[in-house]
Model the fold of this input.
Amino acid sequence: SQQGEEDPQALSIQEGENATMNCSYKTSINNLQWYRQNSGRGLVHLILIRSNEREKHSGRLRVTLDTSKKSSSLLITASRAADTASYFCAVNQGAQKLVFGQGTRLTINP
Amino acid sequence: NAGVTQTPKFQVLKTGQSMTLQCAQDMNHEYMSWYRQDPGMGLRLIHYSVGAGITDQGEVPNGYNVSRSTTEDFPLRLLSAAPSQTSVYFCASSFTYGTSGDQETQYFGPGTRLLVL
Done:
């Protein structure tokens, strides 16, 4: 079963607005990773956050991790049309397996 | 660096045929894996390897075989193709860290689109 569950499944916002996506998981993790996939392409790594970290930033991206709630969020600030993509979280449970969620489809409207 | 390469990019098979999807990486990563992605879905792990000579099953291993004779290559074999195996297949590789071999940032190939008639 999928461990990383993203919410919402789809999100449509206006250019310039912020986009927030959430990921929940069921068991303890060693790290959690966020990826972006443009239509028909491979996945591109965005941010990796370890279980002992609470927040990480990369440019316009901010990822938080709450291990007590078993959840993570990805915030994209000042969205651009180029941010239109699917976003996936992947949880590393320490069993040498990285399990992906079903993703959030983000659409940025001009 | 070429990163992770996959061949072919697109393949059409008839039910019952066999084929091998190729994956290679030039980053000296210990960990390699194969995923399949069905329309509108996330990635499901088929098989993975933590080093040459070591492979293990993921979530959906049935109908697929893998081997890891070198660090660089990790081919995926479809033994007898079925329409249910129509999908996009992604290969990925990464370093690992820690005693439990946790995966670091995954580098993905461009994918192989497979259609089984």
Notes: Chain A touches chain B through 24 residues (CB under 8 Å).
